[in-house]
């Protein structure tokens, strides 16, 4: 909290003001309204989001971490335990069964954490010897579509395949890895490629890691009206760990509030510099719902594959 009469240097509160034209200029005094808007926006961006499914290891979980994932105070968790006759007695880590009991109370599903880190699962092994180079033949590239749960990856694949996928899913979440052969026109000729559709929900990170491990190129979908989300970062980590090229599809450019430039800035801040800005990561702005620029995306992917 700050006093309303204090002038805040812009570099100390580096957030944009909703409705204003970009950032405030350096040295300009903030009004009460702009300070309040900035603090509200900063609070929204920093606020945790309650998980729907929680991975828990054999050693359980700390009270602090559990409270963060359930978006509640540690005191509320302790109060629940006391109400059920459980006294932690200063213990900071709750065992697995107690975590399950608390999560059930708040309708959060618990799954066992995989002891193998996703990044380790995503690593690829080279099995090609120099003697094999003369025997190589062209094959269809394998492409994995990755990204956050609601950034419309499946709609993109639906448009590419011209058939519905969502009807066979449970609750709108892809819960298995599907493989689909697609013919893409390149320079007037149809060339085959294989698309993998991987789950976007955080609970299926292991499957996404396997998808990255067997793929040649990762297409990471980022919504233009939402930007980088936790599963976006995880998908990027899987692709980098697997050592595969990344192509970014900035989706939902047709929606109100879409800001592709902001998404590109966010991506560049984590090391993915757009080709248009002198970097080496292709980024194509699309609308999976309306089919805008899908051909451009496919052409870009096939050029990377070649």
From TrEMBL:
Keyword Nucleotide-binding: yes
InterPro entries the record matches: IF2_N (IPR006847), P-loop_NTPase (IPR027417), Small_GTP-bd (IPR005225), T_Tr_GTP-bd_dom (IPR000795), TIF_IF2 (IPR015760)
Any GO CC annotation of this UniProt entry: cytoplasm
Sequence ranges assigned to domain Tr-type G in this UniProt record: 138-306
A GO molecular-function descriptor: GTP binding
UniProt xrefs under CDD domains: IF2_eIF5B
Pfam family, one: IF2_N
Gene3D superfamilies hit by this protein: P-loop containing nucleotide triphosphate hydrolases
Keywords linked to the UniProt accession: GTP-binding, Initiation factor, Nucleotide-binding, Protein biosynthesis
Top-level taxon: Eukaryota
Family label: Belongs to the TRAFAC class translation factor GTPase superfamily. Classic translation factor GTPase family. IF-2 subfamily.
Name this polypeptide is given: TRANSLATION INITIATION FACTOR IF-2-RELATED
Source organism (scientific name): Salix koriyanagi
Organism lineage: Eukaryota, Viridiplantae, Streptophyta, Embryophyta, Tracheophyta
């Amino acid at each position: 909290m700050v006093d309303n009469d204090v002038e805040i240097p812009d570099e100390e509160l580096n957030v944009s003001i909703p409705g204003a034209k970009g950032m405030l200029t350096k040295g300009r005094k903030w009004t009460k309204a702009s300070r309040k808007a900035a603090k509200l926006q900063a609070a929204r961006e920093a606020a945790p989001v309650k998980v729907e499914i929680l991975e828990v290891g054999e050693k359980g979980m700390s009270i602090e971490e559990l409270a963060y994932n359930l978006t509640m105070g540690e005191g509320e968790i302790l109060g629940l335990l006391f109400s059920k006759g459980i006294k932690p007695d200063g213990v900071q880590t709750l065992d697995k069964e107690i975590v399950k009991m608390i999560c059930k109370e708040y309708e959060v599903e618990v799954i066992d954490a995989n002891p193998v880190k996703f990044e380790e699962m995503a690593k690829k092994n080279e099995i090609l010897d120099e003697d094999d180079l003369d025997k190589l033949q062209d094959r269809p590239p394998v492409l994995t579509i990755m990204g956050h749960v609601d950034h419309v990856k499946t709609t993109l694949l639906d448009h590419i395949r011209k058939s519905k996928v969502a009807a066979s899913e449970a609750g709108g979440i892809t819960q298995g890895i599907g493989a689909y052969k697609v013919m893409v026109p390149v320079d007037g000729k149809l060339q085959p490629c294989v698309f993998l559709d991987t789950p976007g929900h955080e609970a299926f990170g292991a499957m996404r890691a396997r998808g990255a491990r067997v793929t040649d190129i990762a297409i990471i979908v980022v919504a233009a009206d939402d930007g980088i989300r936790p599963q976006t970062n995880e998908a990027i980590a899987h692709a980098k760990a697997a050592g595969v090229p990344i192509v970014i599809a900035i989706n939902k450019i047709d929606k109100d509030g879409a800001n592709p430039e902001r998404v590109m800035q966010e991506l560049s801040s984590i090391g993915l510099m757009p080709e248009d800005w002198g970097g080496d990561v292709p980024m194509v702005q699309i609308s999976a719902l309306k089919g805008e620029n899908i051909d451009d995306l496919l052409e870009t992917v096939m050029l990377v594959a070649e």
